[in-house]
Structure formats: C-alpha cells, structure tokens
Design goal:
By secondary structure, the protein is α/β, with parallel strands linked by helices. The chain has two domains: about 5-175, Rossmann fold; about 190-365, Dehydroquinate synthase-like - alpha domain (Dehydroquinate synthase-like, alpha domain). The protein has helices at about 25-35, 45-60, 80-95, 110-120, 135-140, 180-195, 195-210, 215-220, 220-240, 255-265, 270-290, 295-305, 320-325, 355-365, and strands spanning about 5-10, 15-20, 40-45, 65-70, 100-105, 125-130, 145-150, 155-160, 165-170, 335-345, 345-350. It has a seven-stranded mixed beta sheet, sandwiched between helices. A hairpin with a 4-residue loop joins strand 1 (about 5-10) and strand 2 (about 15-20). Helix 6 packs parallel to helix 11 and helix 7 (about 195-210) packs antiparallel against helix 9. The protein starts with a strand and ends with a helix. The structure holds nicotinamide-adenine-dinucleotide (NAD). Nicotinamide-adenine-dinucleotide binds next to helix 2, helix 4, helix 5 and strand 8. Nicotinamide-adenine-dinucleotide (NAD) binds next to helix 2, helix 4, helix 5 and strand 8.
C-alpha cells in the first residue's frame, strides 16, 4: 500500500511517497504533481545508471515530457562545483525553465549535488528527490540541506532548498552492496534509539528471520522501517527546518563518530559505522552521567553483531579521539556538546561532560 508523508516547511509542503515498486508509476505521479512542466532532467551516477538504465529509459519514454538523463561520475569527489557546472550546462543547453523538473536519482551524493544545482538554477527550479540508498531514503533526501564539497572540506558550499516531492521505492535498495546496507542500518538504528523503539523491534525481528543482510532490505517489514524513519525526519525538519536546535538531536553518536572518522582518516571507516560506534560511546557517557541503560547497550551490541556493524573501536585511542573532537587542552574553555539518552527514546543535550567520563566511555568500547 502506498504510504504518504506530508513534510511541512516554511515555504513549502511536499509529499513523500513510499511504496515498493512505486518506480513503475513514478512518472505518472510526477506529471500529476507538475502539470505546468514540459521538460524533465533526471540526474544519476554512472554506476546506478548501469543498473537501472532500462527501467529509467522505458519510464521516461512513456510520458509526453521532453526528458533527458545526465550521469555524473561515481563517488563523493564528484559532489563538486565542477559537477554543478556540468548540470548548469545541460540545463541551459536544453533551455530548462524554472517550472521544468530536475530529478535526483541516487544516494546522498547525487541528492545533495542535484539539490544544490536546482536551488540556484533560475533561482530555484522544481526538484524531485528520488533516493536510491537507505541513507537517501531515511535521511538526506528529506529536509532541504543541499551542498557540494569544496577543496578538502565536505558540504562547505550549500544552502537550504526543500524538494517539491520525494519518491521512495524500497525495491531499489535490493541492488545495494551489503556494505552500503550495513552503513544505512546504522542510521536506521539511530532513529530507533532516539525517537521510535518500534524501529529497533522491527529490525531485530528481521535479523532473527533473515540470514543474509540483503534479505533485510528485501523484506516488506523494511518498507515500514523506511516509512517510520522518514516520518521522524520530516517531523524533526518541520520543527526545526534551519537546524538551530531540535534537529541537532539527529546528531546522536556524531561527536565521537566524527572524531573517529577524522582520527582514522576519512576513507578508513564509513560514516554509518563511525556513527554507530559513536552511539555506543554516547550510551556509556549517558550511563556515566546516571542513565540506567546497561541493558540497552547490551541489546545494541547484540543487534550490531547481527547486522554486521562494528561493536568495538579499532585504532584510535581516547586521547586521539578527544583531540580529533577538538577537546584537547587548547579547547578546555569551550564546552563539549553531546546528544545523550536518559533512556530509550529520551534524548537530551548535555554541555560540558567531564573528560574522565568521556575517556572511560571510549575505553569501554575499545579493542
Ligand atoms: N543532505 C543531507 O541532509 C545529508 C544527510 C546525510 C548524508 N548526506 C550526504 O550523503 C552522502 C552519502 O550518501 P549515501 O550514503 O547515500 O552514499 P552515496 O550517494 O555515495 O551512495 C553510496 C553508493 O551506493 C551506490 N548506489 C546508490 N544507489 C544504489 C542502488 N540502488 N543500487 C546499487 N548501488 C547504488 C552509489 O553509486 C554509491 O557507490 C554524503 O555526501 C553525505 O554528505 C546528506
């Protein structure tokens, strides 16, 4: 059954449609929503295109919109100003108007890049996010943060530009590598921990039933998990569109997670895995400040093992992590900031966690 979420932001309300197999009717849905559009540019990357070429070409040929497909090279490096320039050239060449449509078909890299280009072309052109990864579906396509990387800095040039529509087909996740699935499950677990424990219940049920990691995303129950996560993200964005407070709760696990990414070298550990370890440390920091969550921690370690997420930090030690997080001696006047859990689904912000509590929590997860 088709599920629909309405995301409400200051200057736009937009639908998020979720259904396994929705891709078959996606073009019809898009055309119904944008009767004034005459042209459509679908942007993806070359490896996603090689998997979905036939489906995309067939779907686009079936409508009466003038349609074009443009592929970007695969990889985070191509989330760049140069790629945006490439897109502007294509849009100009085909004389796209602001009422025409730009569709981002891919993971967060494509979504962020295409969203950025759409936000500036004609001072804002119709944008459809059509995410094809777990991160894309539960996180990056919703909420309007669009950006490109510049030189060595990630997401440094960007803006807020809400899409006009989001289409999610969980069946597209079937072609993801196991490693990408595991990465995405870290994000899913985060939503379960901070906002909706039923996500954890469902995931636990799934891992009990399934032997292979890929059968998790192929299951019907996973569609419901995507829906629950997307609903949380849309609600959080509606409450704090410009990331000034409440939306920061989504940074659960990020303080130590980011430090781990930095200390390990950005390519050594995937974002999802680093954040997952950061969440375990955050649970132990919460315990250090009095939360009774030893059982929850055990439950998470068990779930991580089942889905293939790392449950121990290998590599950087506490000092390195504190330094990477910017908590070294030079920064003692600047209080550290964590998102912690009083209990399951009871997140809170804490400024100035004592250093020994952080160190002990990291040590508990080492090795
Ligand atoms: N805007 C936001 O709010 C937000 C939030 C989180 C992450 N991000 C950004 O998102 C990016 C990470 O996104 P991601 O995790 O989706 O990674 P990604 O876009 O790099 O995609 C991961 C890999 O999966 C491949 N892929 C995508 N869909 C596929 C499919 N259906 N089948 C087979 N392969 C497929 C891609 O080619 C790529 O190799 C980062 O750039 C990050 O900064 C943005």
């Amino acid at each position: 059954m088709m599920k629909k979420i309405l995301a409400k932001t200051s200057n736009r309300r937009y639908p998020i449609y979720i259904r396994r197999g929705i891709s078959k009717s996606a073009l019809k849905l898009i055309k119904g929503m944008f009767p004034g559009s005459h042209k459509l540019l679908l942007v993806t990357n070359d490896s996603i295109y090689s998997i979905y070429r036939e489906m995309l070409e067939k779907n686009l040929a079936s409508g009466d919109l003038e349609s074009h497909i443009h592929t970007i090279k695969e990889g985070e490096t191509y989330k760049s100003l140069d790629s945006s320039r490439e897109l502007f050239d294509v849009l100009l060449k085909h004389n796209f108007h602001r009422n025409d449509l730009i569709v981002a078909f891919g993971g967060g890299v494509i979504g962020d890049l295409v969203g950025f280009a759409a936000s500036t072309y004609h001072r804002g052109t119709n944008l459809v996010q059509y995410p094809t990864t777990i991160i894309g579906q539960v996180d990056s396509s919703i909420g309007g943060k669009v950006a490109v990387n510049y030189r060595d800095t990630k997401n440094i040039i960007g803006t807020f530009y809400q899409p006009h529509m989001i289409i999610m087909d969980p069946a597209l996740l079937n072609t993801l590598d196991d490693s990408e699935i595991v990465n995405g499950l870290g994000e899913v677990i985060k939503y379960g921990l901070i906002f909706d424990s039923r996500i954890l219940d469902a995931l636990e049920k799934l891992v009990q039933r399934q032997e292979k990691i890929s059968s998790i995303t192929a299951s019907r129950l996973f569609e419901d998990i995507i829906y629950r996560c997307a609903r949380i993200k849309a609600a959080v964005v509606s409450k704090d569109e410009f990331d000034t407070g409440h939306r920061n709760l989504l940074n659960f696990g990020h303080t130590i997670g980011h430090a781990l990414e930095k200390a390990s070298g950005l390519t050594e550990i995937s974002h999802g895995r680093a954040i997952s370890l950061g969440m375990l440390v955050a649970l132990d920091i919460s315990a250090g400040l009095g939360s009774q969550n030893a059982d929850l921690k055990k439950r998470m370690v068990h779930l991580y093992k089942k889905v293939g997420l790392p449950a121990r930090i290998a590599g950087p030690g506490p000092e390195q992590l504190l330094e990477a997080a910017g908590f070294d001696k030079k920064f003692t006047s600047k209080k550290n900031k964590f998102v912690l859990l009083k209990a399951l689904n009871r997140p809170f912000f804490y400024h100035g966690v004592p250093e020994e509590i952080i160190i002990n929590a990291i040590k508990k997860n080492m090795g």
